[in-house]
Records
---
Amino acid sequence: MRRLLLASVAASLAACTTPGAVGERPKASASELDKVTAVLKRDFHERGQAKMNRVELDEVQRLCNLNADNPPAEAAKRIEEAQLKTIKFPSGSLMGDWQRAEKVAQNGRGSMWSDKPGAPAGGSCYNCHQISPKETSFGTIGPSLLGFGKQRGNGPEMQKYVYGKIYNSKAYNACSTMPRLGYAGTLSEEQIKDLVALLLDPASPVNK
Amino acid sequence: MRAIACGTVLALAFSPAFAQQQSKFADYQRMTAEGSPVELFELSGEELWKKKQGPRNVSLEQCDLGMGPGVLKGAYARLPRYFKDADRVMDLETRLLYCMTNLQGRSPEEATKRLFGNANQPSEMEYLSAYIAGQSRGVPIEPGSSHPREKESYELGKALFFHRAGAWDFSCASCHGEEDKRIRMSELPVLSSPKFARPVMATWPAYRVSNSQFKTMQWRINDCYRQMRMPEPKYASDATIAMNLYLTATAKGETYRGPGTKR
């Protein structure tokens, strides 16, 4: 009996510590999502370029919130296909200028209420990724991109993938943590092409 | 000689007076070593707390921060909490606004005119936060958790923490959800985990060395939402208080030791 009691105490203690466990994210129900959106509408206001329509959930955000970023495979596939259609692939080469891209990768501004609308934005790339070996102050939320082109090649398919991934990351992974930098209007076609070159051009420091 | 000196030091070290001295000295050393002016903010905050202001020309000294009118010791460590007179869960800054309007008779417009200051001119709210938070040093963090409204607020804060939205699809957990992650060189505490929330919440509000400014918790939440590419949370709104309560409750039990000094 006593052993049973101890075991149950131990089990409940374990249960107590689990919710605090790192990375644990609760699934939200549809009504909970509506409630949070209503709170955001009531308790937030627009400022600068950050308008109130940003609190409205699109189908990507809805799916990811409902499934704690781990949606059923079929739903994820459906979303990814729809997101792929949002990407406007430019005609011609997708490889821009890697030298110009370094500045875009470094720049952490853009799409915030404190940013001047229309001013050139950055991709905040180094906030989360290692890219050029020269920059040692890089974040680790995303994978290291050092040697990206060297390892994967730089053919038309790879160029298209990198362009698409930066334009709309959710076309390839429905609940990716990465922002949809082209789709959100943060980066221009030219800037994304330059970033493709930063990752794929054999002359880029990334591939040296 | 050395042995005697060691013996004396040891004997002294076990006397309570010395221990207290020692810990004060350690605090002092830590502060001066970092060049932190936190104590100056606390002193200015005390002056403002006692300054007669507003149409009624009274000070904030009779403001009830949850432990009775004018009781400051340990009050911050028990916020946010439900206040019956306002029928609302409130954090420190929200409660101060309440006292400025209800006690001093100031208009909400006047009291909220300048909430976030700068290096040259900190705000009244920043000074007051420093002073009042400092009065909870050594007190365990224990925000309100029993009233239904407190439970509701905590749940809202938790839901907000994980809620992805905005131009960049971020939730708080996008950056504060996994261990051993950084933005550039800044380490990111997993704020849904007590282990990481404790040292963070034990040291806010805080002085930031990098821009020579004292920052409040309302500012901290506001600036996260700015970087999340969201619209701006209204100051002292229920959403900000809920977030504050969720983070503070996650750090429950930790001894408050702020205001802190950050990079």
---
Amino acid sequence: MRKLKEFIIDKLIFICGLASIFFVILIFLFLSKEALAVFKYVSPVDFLAGKRWYPISEPAQLGILPLIFGSLMVTLGAAIISIPIGIACAVYISEVAPSGIKEFLKAGIELLAAIPSVVLGFIGMVTLVPWVKRIFGLPTGLTALSGSIILAFMAMPTIVSIAEDALYSVPKNYKEGAFALGATHWQTIYRVLLPAASSGIVAAVMLGIGRVIGETMAVMMITGNAAVIPHSILVPVRTLTATIAAEMGEAVVGSEHYFALFAIGIVLFIISFIINVSADLFLHKRS
Amino acid sequence: MSNTQRSQKIAFFFLFLATLLILVPVGLIVVVIVQKGLPAINWQFLSDIPRQGMRAGGIFPAIIGTFYLVFGAILFALPIGLLAAIYLSEYAGNNPLNRIIKLAIVNLAGVPSVVYGLFGLALFVVFLRFGASILSGSLTLGIMILPIIITTAREALESVPQSFREVSLSLGASKWQTIRHIVLPNAIPGILTGTILGLGRAAGETAPILFTVAAFYLPRLPKSIFDQVMALPYHLYVISTQVPNVEEKIRYGTALVLLSLVLFMNLVAIIIRYNFRKRKKW
């Protein structure tokens, strides 16, 4: 009897152990099941490289290039802001900050990570957007720049905490060795610690960028949602994620618009898959 | 002062500046929301239904909706996540399968939230015919927080010293008895931390519930798990972008309620973790 019970429990644990593989496959299958249907209406090349996204015109034009550019521009802006600040903050917390305030600083970073994206989007709308409008004298503050700034704040907790982990796990004798040779603390940081932690820091940056590409609500609320190829960072853009969130409510189940939004979903899924697998490789290179 | 020392001073100053650049805005965000949202908070705001096209009244249905969704998500994710963590920490060896499972968890954690929304729509709402309902929304959120729960629970289980297991096994306990009576009790604070972090994440997410459960305006409470509900994050999105002329106070008030809920859960998780580390006997 007890043997049987243990046998069942063992099997149950094994099945649950496989659950995450099961769900990743399930997500991929259900996305592609709906997404592949779009290629009855539009060729993969026209879908990815088409310059017009007019999903409800007759006939529908389903080119996602403007959306890809929108995502790229917002992501690039966020990366330029968040990578240097994030890495610098990680170095400060792990190496420079007095031990008394270290935990306090870390809690502040965790606090930022915990703020829901819709709250950041709301705050961006009521504060940042009017500022951007006034400072640059624009007709609207709902621009790629506003989106980049808010997204930078969503990427920074990821970058800081993973980069800090990477710096922390550099063996202590590297540091002692550098000190013994007469290097200053700063020389040790940028000549020894940063290179030694580089693969972890690269992973941190990649995961931060992954977070930015996938972010939806804040972006939808503050980038203005214009599906045209942007020519500057001071114009409204529309990202891949915001397109899905904004349009799925109106798309009829089984229409080409519905399938096209799923196809965008699979593009996002594949991007996040590539980013996460390669970041994981970088993280494991270290050990 | 020598050259190298000066450059160190300058470098450290910039590192400090970068830290301030992150933390000062965070502080300001919280302060502004509290300051402008607090005047809106009263008993009526928390207990009344939205009135006059969401421009007056309260946010009670959204609060209740969020509670249902979060509860449903954890009901689904905790058992599966905990058993998966037990598998990884107690059963799995260092083999390719284990490696693939870990990669799958990392991937699940990285899938954009709106993609979870699409998946929930395709699987639960359309394919399984649950419709836009608490059930569909909870399951979608549940899968989304699964990686958080697995990762934190696994860390908690792995931090229980190997010797505890060996003693138990040497006394004739079976593997499951050892897990059940020795490993799990010692890992409970860590598991609790992960669960609460998962709750906080589920409470704050909007994109996964957009097409699976969230109702634009539904001034009554749900009767079954097949009903739609309003939810706090979606409600904040609606009154800040979709409904014109909502008083600023009401928007800030809603943001404050959502933020307090999420931050409160995170705070509890941090306190549990802190106390646990302090009390740790090994």
---
Amino acid sequence: MVTETAMQARRKAAMTVLAHSDAAGIAECLGAIAVPAHEHLREPENGLVMVRGRIGGDGAPFNLGEATVSRAAVRLATGEVGFGYTLGRDLEKARMIALCDAMVQSHELADAVEANVLAPLRSSMLASRERQAAQAAATRVDFYTMVRGGG
Amino acid sequence: MYVAVKGGERAIENAHRLLAHERRGDRDVAEISLAQISGQLSLGVDRVMTEGSLYDRELAALAIKQARGDLIEAIFLVRAFRATLPRFGATEPVDTGTMQVRRRISSTFKDIPGGQVLGPTFDYTHRLLDPQLAEGSAPEAPVAAEPLAAMPRVTDILGRDGLIEASPQTDDGAPVGDLTREPLSFPADRDLRLQNLARADEGFLLALGYSTQRGYGRSHPFAGEIRFGEVEVEFFAEDAGFTVPLGAIAMTECQMVNQFKGSATEAPCFTRGYGLAFGQSERKTMSMALVDRSLRARELSEEIKAPAQDEEFVMSHSDNVQATGFVEHLKLPHYVDFQSELGLLRKLRAEFFEAAASAEPLQEAAE
């Protein structure tokens, strides 16, 4: 039996991967598994969140500006309720995240979602992060000191 | 007297059709796509997102296309759009210390932990026009084998030795000022000032920041650190009952380190100015940090004598949507106002000439 904290951590980890992936990628992965019967608890909708920063990077919060978001909620026929939140206005992406979140909580479906959806999306997310980090690393300055005089 | 005037509908409709026609440009040239604007005019998109105060690359690209590249018009369009969507709430404050860094430099320490990472920058380019770009190109990105190390903020390093003032703190859940919800009033707290500066016109802040460097409210700044990259954003979702990840937002942060303050009871330490913006917005965040610092004059008991230290002056004139609205409204019909001015002027002139005419004979007599 998974504790509630562990389940929440697992759901957040899955949501992170999904939020970082594009809708086409998620749809392609979902195509590989049998999607269970489900209903919309909250029709996918667009809205805004106010993005906050911190004064000095680590101080009191302030309002930086808004960002578009999409959200949705679904319920599987077996009862699991999933929530989908993502930056941007892609309603279908929010719906698929909610569906995956519900499946992650299902004992029967969690493994299939991990193997067919989350694992491939996670590795492509990490690969793109690594590629970007390697590009940035190529611009790191190596200082050297000019030897003066000498003899 | 108010006189309603009607007419001009057909002229207006045709003007808009002509605008659409001109916007499309030469039909023999391919139409520009949003992906092209977003990917290849990305710093313009970043500016529209920052000053439009809405993070959405595709919408900002659409606004730039619709505005024919007029960025202030595009910012106006984005601001108007945001009013059409409901707000779900506020995110957790982002942690720029965990940024996936694409650029990070410090002008105060050569050997900062994590190193100086130049990233995609115009710095050190020769500013010579490149004719090859006119031909089209497919450059390849450089790649290093060694990964990047962790990058603590420079201000955190200085803070450990007490050499720099700590950032102001509030209790969790304390209200955060929001100028999109309440009208501005003065004096304004730093959270409201930073929100105002984050949305402010880059050119206005650049000029004000420059003015502090030239002596109008001098603050002896160093660019302690500038970093640009992706920051994770999280949001407490009431329906889910926990904080959910939303994805990552590209941001630029500037930590300005300024001359010290101290008192009989406090050891002297460096003071700070802060800048934060969407996308790669380096000039904006540097200017913002300079002006944030100069606007702290009251708090730091500095004499307020320069425009950049006057929060009412700065905050009331920083918004380019408000500014352009008021300046550009001058071209809308003011026929009735002008007619009454004209009538008054005619009357004054008539009185002037009458007085002059009646004074003339007396003058002659005096001679």
---
Amino acid sequence: MNPVAIVGTGQTRHARARDDASQAELVREAAARALEDAAIEPRDIDAVVIANMELFEGRAWPELWVGEAAFAAGKPCVKVATGGTSGTSGCIAGIHQVASGLFDIVLVVGFEKHSEGHTQTGMTLTDPYWDRAVASGAVGNFALSVSQYMAERGTTERQAAQVAVKARRNAARNPYAHLQMPALTVEEVLASKPLAHPLRMLDMCPQSDGACAIVVASGTRARKLNPRPAWVRAAATRHEQPFIGDIERRLATMRTLREAAREAYAGAGIGNPLKELDVAEIYEPVSYAELAWYEALGFCEEGQAGRLIEEGVTEMGGELPVNPSGGVLSTNPVGASGVIRVAEAALQIHGRGGERQVDGVRTALATGYGVYAWADAIVLADRP
Amino acid sequence: MSAPVHVALEMDQSWRYAAPAAMARFCAGLKERRIEALRCGGCGRRYLPPRPVCGNCHLPLADWVPVADEGRLEAWTVVHVPILDPRTGRMREAPYGMGLVRLDGADTTLNHFLAQSDPARLAIGQRVRAVWREQLAGAIDDIRHFEVLA
């Protein structure tokens, strides 16, 4: 793979409803900020990747309607739509395009405007013979997996609530985040509205309006555009079998994320992720998922995830801060959420994290998670 | 700056999907309260729903095996929030129980409703049995839900 780096990032303010902006305007807001951050002009962009789940907004060909706002008119432009991984897969597509040598600069923009459509309808448009009659959406699906994970690992509702608190507290230091709750307590999470046993309202991610963009550059261009490029050390992606019942003990085994992480760590030369990563931005749509991902990503032995959150290992001041941005639990415009993970990991290496900057970040992980069917893992570093 | 303008649209749509051959045979079986899985000749995994190819071995599947309408509860939840019923477009009444059921004779699990919606009475490992509707239409919800066996 030719050297590739992320040299600029930009995102919108994320909120439950951005009535002040259309989909194209959100895309423009994020894209323009990414160009400004990378100090490049629209003419410098060779190709554009759009990430979006168009079923949620009920608007076909989003790459057509928003592409112009992402400076794509007259250029190669493709769309990636793989559920929650749309954003990370879009970033990997952009990385592959530059790594191939075909393009020097690719702009990746992810967006979602949940307030305009029917996310739940989009989520239920699954296999018409099997899943659709008995589907219970993202919350019901997660709750089923969580029941297995808790039974197997002995995870407590309190440990999950601690993850929910950490996310919203971190988000309070991120000016772009949707849910900023600096004083949220474990008790408040445990007292929030039951959604699907044992998941409560504050265990789940919100639905947000927002967009995020990154500028991916080839090695020679990257060195000129950013004093501390976030070099892509490895990027891996995995697909899964089609039905929820195909996957054995989903959260406990998490084959897609486990294997994507293994490949990415091997590519980046990482043997002990807890020690060798300085920060991680992981796609945790539900509090319990973050605990399961700690194990799948090798941050701890199986069954030790609860200890990690209890001991503050993944807090801002801990050994491996996880989601300084506040994560998906605080901000979730689906098509953008994966791009946000990569952008936040990159800006930690750029040293442009503001109040959410972790000191001395040299190596960062970003992950994506799409329903149960996809997972992505990307390792970024301050050296190629 | 002027106030935001929104365009509101409503639509009523219908869809029509062709069933894969294996699914068509499976659905025909449901009309006679018969459940069948496809077994992989490579790894031996018995798939519900039946499908053309084993995802692990990439071998074509052709070996039909019988599956009971009883099994083991592998995961459960009680959904408290009303969820859109994708087949009608109306909200489904809550609370209701959901489970992943491993039917005797299958290796994958079946995602379906549970008759029980009291969390205190549900546990992984319980034996459950299908409760069939009186009118069978050849669809997965010919099974109304699964009930927990004493």
